[in-house]
């Protein structure tokens, strides 16, 4: 009897401890689930190089503590890599043009530049890049200024020349400084292919400081071979921020040089809209890279892209830019509403953005925040919350 | 003459007229000698206010009955009293006498004495009373004008929350006082408010601005200024996102902008606008929203290019399904839209494909107005011409034939009758006479 009793008591103590732990864990799970409910999830989607990661960086700069010195320094190797990659693409492109073009005299390098070019092309083809020294920077600058390279750059849309090529080439002196620390702008322009998923949690602090909205922003890889990683993220997002680089209409994909980038964006957007998990999700379409679009559209007609083949220019200058923009906007709108019958009642808004301009991104995000809050209020009023 | 000599005697007691307390002393002084505190327009200080003019301007004010002439029911300007003690407007009672009457109009007593005595006391009272009210309203209006100008100045300088507050206040003032509207217009208010609308305007600012603009009279240059794509996009977004009042205001404003200008309608009627309007029209909780939405839909659908957009966003079945629940005013608008859409090939197809078209439209024949019946007939004809057999059986089941016969026999205009006959013929094409008759479900008498 005594033994029995004492054994029970012993096991009771152990049980009690286990129960207490289990309860504690459950309580914490419940707390976190409740907290999670108030966090609005935003998903950045879009084709490769559409500006998603730049938006991501901007949000980090605007609403978090930005980049500290260590983080800034971590971008040095990325920026140097971008420099090498850029000049290599240009040089290789030049060689290609000089072989194929009838008027190949345009694509002949002067003097030693040919040797410099070969050397840089070899460096750029390696897996690891050397640090950018003053000498290398000088050589790159000389090559960049060569008229043949400039001719090649003018046809950059036929190659995979990154949009920030000009920025990199103009700042070579600064980049090659021994004590170089990248600036915020340098970081924004730096280009590294996102693999996997990155996320940040932030609260937009505005004049209305008690706004209390907490957002979690996810950035995913944009190229085709990364898309399967997105699937499991789709559940329960408040809004999708879809980035489309509208200046891409005359460029081809990095991963498939036969495919026009704008057509790829169009198909991706269509695919995303049709996903059943997005039935109730708000869609914010960022028509990005407006600054490049502004200049390009006056030189390269929109109808080089099949989707825009029925475009008719009406005037010149600023008016024409606006007209072209409205046309592109309308095309995206049509695409959206094609997949939206019957009307699912979700929010769809289009924003004109230039992801590199921090002020604009801040203003744009303020509007996105307002829209999402209005949506919650309308749902509440309609008795859905 | 009492009117010219201000009384110097102090009066302790206030006069009570019809429940309104008249401080005659002050009233007389204010009315004749000058402004209240000299604070406003020097013009009033020395001018004698014209009673006739004041009466005209204060038309809507409730005048005490003792001031009203029993003959004309208008305020008296030159009251005269008869020997019976009743007071009338001089011109009216003299006219009464000239028609041969020698009675007092109200008491019906025979008059042994047709002399009229001017009632100076009453005249002075009437004058003072009107002056007091007139001057007070002038002051209020000046205050309002001053306030409006102040707010407009503020708007030029502030941003953020302060801007929203200023706009809210301006909106309240404009809604409460009609003089405020003119002040806003005359002081460049429209251009100022329009300049606040752009691609980065927040909803808070935009909804207040639209709330003000939709109540003002806009001239054509203001309208074309507001027609910029970025501003229109903003209005369309607000129409989709805002409260019911914001939605209605946006709808109203867009309608004002598009009125009478063919090209504007095309520029404005984006797919987003059409979807937004359809959502507005489907919201059964807000009847004025439905009306505003339908009015704008009618305006934009009068243009061909808009019609195919309307069909592509699935507008036809959504509108058809709504028909039974609409009131008469809304019904006519909705039918107008559907009729316009039926002139386009994709519209006809959409109408035919929607199973509710025929039954819902047939029910409306001869039910609301001649106009509605005409529109309904056009719609039915368009659909029938596309697929006669299908529609015929549907229509017959819905009791179309009886209704058509009713139209033909009624006092409607000729066009309607012809249309009905045409439709009836289309219906009967597939049946023999007897089957047709039985399908008509007619009562004995009509048979």
Protein model, in words:
Chain B: Pathway: Protein modification; protein ubiquitination. Chain B: Its EC number is 2.3.2.27. Chain B: It catalyses: S-ubiquitinyl-[E2 ubiquitin-conjugating enzyme]-L-cysteine + [acceptor protein]-L-lysine = [E2 ubiquitin-conjugating enzyme]-L-cysteine + N(6)-ubiquitinyl-[acceptor protein]-L-lysine. Chain B: Functions as an E3 ubiquitin ligase. The complex is a heterodimer of chains A (385) and B (447). Chain A is built from 14 helices and 6 strands. Chain A has 385 residues and is α/β, with parallel strands linked by helices. Chain A has a 6-stranded mixed β-sheet with strand order 2-3-1-4-5-6, sandwiched between helices. Chain A starts with a helix and ends with a helix. The model of chain A has no long low-confidence stretch (mean pLDDT 82). With 447 residues, chain B is mainly alpha-helical. Among the domains of chain B are: 6-136, Zinc/RING finger domain, C3HC4 (zinc finger) (Herpes Virus-1, 2-Layer Sandwich), CATH 3.30.40.10; 355-447, no CATH class. In chain B, 64% of the residues lie in helices and 3% in strands. Chain B starts with 14 loop residues before the first strand and ends in an 8-residue tail after the last helix. Chains A and B meet through helix 13, strand 6 and helix 14 of A and helix 11 and helix 14 of B.
User: How helical, in percent, are the residues of chain B?
Assistant: 55-70%
Amount of helix of chain A: 40-55%
For CATH, the homologous superfamily of the domain at 6-136 in chain B is named as Zinc/RING finger domain, C3HC4 (zinc finger)
Number of strands of chain A: 6
CATH architecture term of the domain at 6-136 in chain B: 2-Layer Sandwich
Per CATH, the class of the domain at 6-136 in chain B reads Alpha Beta
Distance between the termini of chain B: 85 Å
Radius of gyration of chain A: 26 Å
């Amino acid at each position: 009897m005594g033994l029995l009793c004492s054994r029970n008591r012993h096991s009771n103590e152990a049980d009690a401890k286990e129960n207490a732990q289990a309860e504690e864990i459950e309580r914490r799970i419940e707390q976190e689930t409740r907290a999670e409910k108030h966090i609005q999830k935003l998903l950045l989607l879009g084709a490769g190089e559409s500006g998603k990661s730049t938006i991501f960086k901007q949000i980090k700069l605007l609403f978090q503590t930005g980049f500290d010195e260590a983080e800034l320094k971590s971008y040095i190797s990325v920026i140097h890599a971008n420099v090498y990659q850029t000049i290599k693409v240009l040089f290789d492109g030049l060689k290609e043009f000089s072989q194929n073009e009838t008027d190949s005299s345009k694509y002949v390098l002067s003097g030693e530049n040919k040797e410099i070019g070969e050397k840089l092309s070899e460096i750029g083809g390696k897996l690891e890049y050397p640090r950018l020294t003053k000498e290398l920077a000088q050589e790159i600058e000389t090559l960049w200024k060569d008229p043949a390279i400039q001719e090649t750059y003018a046809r950059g849309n036929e190659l995979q020349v990154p949009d920030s090529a000009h920025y990199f080439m103009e700042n070579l002196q600064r980049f090659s400084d021994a004590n170089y620390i990248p600036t915020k702008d340098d970081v924004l322009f730096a280009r590294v292919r996102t693999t996997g998923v990155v996320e940040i949690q932030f609260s937009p602090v505005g004049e209305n400081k008690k706004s209390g909205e907490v957002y979690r922003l996810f950035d995913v890889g944009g190229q085709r071979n990364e898309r399967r990683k997105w699937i499991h993220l789709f559940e329960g997002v408040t809004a999708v921020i879809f980035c489309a680089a509208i200046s891409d209409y005359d460029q081809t994909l990095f991963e498939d040089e036969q495919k026009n980038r704008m057509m790829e964006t169009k198909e991706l957007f269509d695919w995303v809209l049709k996903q059943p998990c997005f039935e109730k999700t708000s869609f914010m379409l960022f028509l990005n890279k407006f600054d490049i679009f502004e200049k390009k559209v006056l030189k390269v007609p929109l109808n080089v892209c099949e989707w825009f083949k029925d475009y008719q220019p009406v005037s010149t200058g600023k008016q024409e830019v606006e007209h072209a923009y409205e046309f592109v906007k309308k095309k995206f709108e049509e695409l959206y509403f094609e997949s939206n019958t019957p009307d699912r009642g979700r929010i769809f808004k289009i924003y004109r953005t230039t992801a590199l301009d921090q002020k604009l991104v801040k203003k744009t995000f303020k509007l996105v925040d307002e829209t999402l809050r209005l949506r919650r209020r309308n749902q509440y009023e309609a008795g859905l919350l | 003459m009492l009117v010219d000599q201000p009384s110097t005697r102090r009066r302790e007691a206030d006069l009570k007229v019809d429940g309104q307390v008249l401080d005659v002393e002050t009233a007389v002084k204010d009315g004749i000698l000058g402004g209240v505190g000299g604070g406003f327009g020097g013009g009033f200080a020395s001018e004698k206010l014209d009673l006739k003019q004041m009466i005209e301007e204060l038309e809507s004010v409730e005048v005490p009955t003792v001031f009203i002439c029993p003959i004309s029911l208008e305020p008296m300007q030159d009251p005269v009293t008869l020997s019976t003690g009743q007071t009338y407007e001089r011109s009216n009672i003299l006219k009464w006498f000239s028609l041969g009457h020698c009675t007092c109009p109200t008491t019906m007593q025979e008059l042994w004495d047709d002399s009229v005595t001017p009632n100076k006391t009453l005249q002075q009272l009437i004058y003072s009373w009107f002056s007091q009210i007139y001057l007070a309203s002038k002051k209020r209006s000046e205050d309002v004008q001053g306030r409006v100008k102040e707010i407009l100045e503020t708007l030029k300088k502030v941003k953020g929350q302060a801007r929203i507050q200023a706009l809210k206040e301006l909106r309240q003032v404009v809604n409460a006082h009609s003089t405020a509207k003119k002040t806003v217009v005359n002081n460049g208010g429209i251009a100022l408010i329009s300049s606040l609308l752009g691609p980065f305007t927040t909803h808070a600012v935009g909804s207040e601005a639209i709330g003000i603009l939709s109540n003002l009279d806009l001239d054509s240059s203001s309208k074309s200024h507001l027609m910029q794509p970025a501003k229109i996009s903003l209005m369309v977004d607000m129409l989709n996102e805002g409260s019911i009042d914001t939605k209605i205001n946006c709808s109203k404003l867009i309608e004002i902008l598009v009125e009478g200008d063919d090209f504007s309608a095309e520029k404005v009627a984006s797919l987003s606008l059409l979807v937004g309007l359809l959502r507005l029209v489907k919201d059964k909780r807000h009847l004025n929203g439905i009306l505003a939405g339908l009015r704008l839909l009618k305006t934009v659908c009068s243009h061909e290019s808009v019609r195919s957009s309307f069909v592509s966003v699935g507008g036809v079945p959504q509108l058809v399904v709504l028909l039974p629940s609409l009131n008469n005013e809304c019904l006519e608008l909705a039918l107008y839209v559907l009729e316009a859409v039926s002139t386009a090939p994709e519209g006809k197809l959409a109408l035919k494909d929607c199973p509710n078209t025929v039954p819902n439209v047939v029910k409306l024949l001869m039910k609301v107005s001649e106009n509605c019946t005409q529109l309904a007939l056009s719609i039915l004809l368009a659909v029938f011409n596309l697929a006669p057999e299908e529609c015929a059986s549907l229509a017959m089941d819905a009791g179309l034939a009886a209704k058509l016969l009713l139209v033909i026999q009624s006092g409607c205009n000729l066009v309607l009758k012809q249309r009905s006959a045409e439709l009836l013929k289309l219906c009967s094409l597939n049946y023999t006479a007897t089957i047709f008759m039985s399908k008509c479900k007619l009562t004995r008498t009509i048979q």
